[in-house]
Amino acid sequence: MGKTYYCDYCDRSFKDDVEARKKHLSSMQHMTNRASHYSTFKDPETILKEEYCKTPCKHYITIGDCAFGSACRFSHYTPSMIWELQQLAAMKKSKVSIAQPKNGWPNSEDIIKEYFENVIDSSNTEDLNHLMWNAPSKLIDYPYLPPSLQPIMSERMMDCNFSKWG
To answer: In this entry, which stretches build a coiled coil (predicted)?
Structure first.
């Protein structure tokens, strides 16, 4: 019994010799499966650029299905889907521009503020600590706990001195 080669893209296995593997890797089925796998990881900007160059697929628009699937050279995106991609690309671009530090290093106070502001809506502050940090009530009664065991609160993080941590 010889070794077998398993292709993750095609979900099949075959005899592992040089000729069989070479034939499989150069086959059209393998190349389309590989391309469709990597297309799922494209960022919204790249997808938008590609879709702007394509014309809508008439078969997909009229029937709702296309025999070529993701390998079709025409666009299968509806105007609402393109609008969503535009919104995703704009959000990603705005996050990148906000995350760019001024002097090359991120400001630790800004990182802490962003973390605590974006996790949960701050309008309901009494539930904030309960939802985020499930600290036992007995721990709050001990005043001399090391900082690593103290319940995390945004006020303590702003005044934190990491050199005291042991």
So the answer is: none
Of residues 69, 59, 66, 2, the one with CA closest to residue 29:
69
Q: How far apart are CA 76 and CA 109, in angstroms?
A: 45
> pLDDT digit string (tens) for 37-96?
888 888 888 889 988 889 999 988 888 888 888 778 899 888 888 888 888 888 888 776
Domain hosting residue 127, numbered range: 108-164
Same domain, 78 and 124: no
Gap between the Cα atoms of 25 and 9, Å rounded: 10
DSSP string, 49-96: HHHHHSPB-HHHHHHS--TTGGG-SSB---HHHHHHHHHHHHHHHHHH
- Same domain? For 140 and 159 the reply is yes
How far apart are the C-alpha atoms of 90 and 4, rounded to whole Å?
46
Query: Do residues 7 and 13 make contact, with C-beta atoms less than 8 angstroms apart?
Result: yes
Q: Enter the pTM of the model.
A: 0.44
Summarised one tens digit per residue, pLDDT across range 78-92 is 888 888 888 888 888
